[in-house]
Structures are given as structure tokens and as C-alpha cells.
Amino acid sequence: MALEAWFMDESNEDQRLPHHRNPKELVSLNHLAELGVLYWHLNPNNYENDKELQKIREARGYNYMDLLDLCPEKVTNYEEKLRNFYTEHIHADEEIRYCLEGSGYFDVRDKDDQWIRIWIKAGDLIILPAGIYHRFTLDTSNYVKLMRLFLGEPVWTAYNRPQDDHPARKEYIKDLTGKMGAPLEAH
């Protein structure tokens, strides 16, 4: 099953709703790749022995991994954490998330500063480039189990918008301008 993504409406309704525009405006994997967002679909039932996941981790240098169950019953200060995840921000490093169970939304800004909503479900692995404005929320299922991957020790620092002078944001904009139309490795 392919990843689903679309341009979001401007509604202030519950963030866990799909927020499709009317009519729906879907976004292709190629469009996401132009923004630096990479995607793989893997077998979440075999993540401990998945050769493709191992190949991705080795090729990209992801040597640290942990798991996060995100739901009201398992996370202390759940509402506060969800508000923090949903605040628009960047990171100085890539954000790598592999959905093992449940589902949720990553929202990313495109080159025209419009929100694109990416619906991740079990088996979806996405990589958000350093410096891209984004946010995360659960959908109405209120549950997701994510594998988080990192290069070296995990870095959790989020830099809330505006961050136009942050080195990672400047590098992202430079790469985005240079890669327009160039294919990236994703599937």
C-alpha cells in the first residue's frame, strides 16, 4: 500500500481529522521526494529481522534505535506532548520514523509554505530532512507505535518556527533550490 499525502485545508477543527481540501488535492511520492521527504514501505511484523530495514540503516548510518508507544494510556503528560509535537518546528538532523502499529500524521511545509499532510500507517518508514518545517499528530485512532532511528546518540531538540537563520534551515533551503526536479532515492 502506498503512502497517502495531500494538501491540507485551513480549518481549525480537531487536528486529528484528515483536513482534506475540497476537492481533495493528493500529493505524489515524487513531489514529497522533491521536498527531501523519503519513503519506504516495509514489513512491520518482521522489523527485528527485516533485511531491507537493515540495509537502509547501514546505508544511511542509523546506529541508534528506540520504540515509542504514543497513546493516552502509555505517555505521561500525553496532551502536553501532543501539543509540543504539533507545534511547527525544525530539527538540526533528519527525523526518521518507522510506523509499526497504528497511524498518525506528519505535516510538512512545501516550497510555497503550504501544509502537506502525510498519513503514516503500519509499514511506512519516512525520513524528513533536517531543516524542513513540520509537525506531528495522531489521527482519530489515538495510537501509534513508532521506531525512531538516529545517527549516533539521539537528539531531541526541536526549534520552533521561525528558524530561517538556523544553519539546518539554510542548508535545507539551499538543497531544495538545487534539487528542484532532480530525482531522490525513495520508493
Automatic annotation (TrEMBL):
Chain segments annotated as transmembrane: none
EC number: 1.13.11.54, 1.13.11.53
UniProt remark on cofactor binding: Binds either 1 Fe or Ni cation per monomer. Iron-binding promotes an acireductone dioxygenase reaction producing 2-keto-4-methylthiobutyrate, while nickel-binding promotes an acireductone dioxygenase reaction producing 3-(methylsulfanyl)propanoate.
Biological process, per Gene Ontology: L-methionine salvage from methylthioadenosine
Binding site for Ni(2+): H89, H91, E95, H134
Primary localization: membrane
One MF term in the entry's GO annotations: acireductone dioxygenase (Ni2+-requiring) activity
SUPFAM superfamilies hit by this protein: RmlC-like cupins
Keywords: Amino-acid biosynthesis, Cytoplasm, Dioxygenase, Iron, Metal-binding, Methionine biosynthesis, Nickel, Nucleus, Oxidoreductase
Localization per record: Cell membrane; Cytoplasm; Nucleus
Residues annotated as binding Fe(2+): H89, H91, E95, H134
Highest taxon of the lineage: Eukaryota
Topology of the protein relative to the lipid bilayer: Peripheral membrane protein
Pathway assignment: Amino-acid biosynthesis; L-methionine biosynthesis via salvage pathway; L-methionine from S-methyl-5-thio-alpha-D-ribose 1-phosphate: step 5/6
Cofactor(s) the protein needs: Fe(2+); Ni(2+)
GO cellular component terms, A-Z: cytoplasm; nucleus; plasma membrane
Catalytic activity as recorded in UniProt: 1,2-dihydroxy-5-(methylsulfanyl)pent-1-en-3-one + O2 = 3-(methylsulfanyl)propanoate + CO + formate + 2 H(+); 1,2-dihydroxy-5-(methylsulfanyl)pent-1-en-3-one + O2 = 4-methylsulfanyl-2-oxobutanoate + formate + 2 H(+)
Protein's job: Catalyzes 2 different reactions between oxygen and the acireductone 1,2-dihydroxy-3-keto-5-methylthiopentene (DHK-MTPene) depending upon the metal bound in the active site. Fe-containing acireductone dioxygenase (Fe-ARD) produces formate and 2-keto-4-methylthiobutyrate (KMTB), the alpha-ketoacid precursor of methionine in the methionine recycle pathway. Ni-containing acireductone dioxygenase (Ni-ARD) produces methylthiopropionate, carbon monoxide and formate, and does not lie on the methionine recycle pathway.
Family to which this protein belongs: Belongs to the acireductone dioxygenase (ARD) family.
PANTHER family, A to Z: ACIREDUCTONE DIOXYGENASE (PTHR23418), ACIREDUCTONE DIOXYGENASE 4 (PTHR23418:SF4)
Record's protein name: Acireductone dioxygenase
Taxonomic classification: Eukaryota, Viridiplantae, Streptophyta, Embryophyta, Tracheophyta
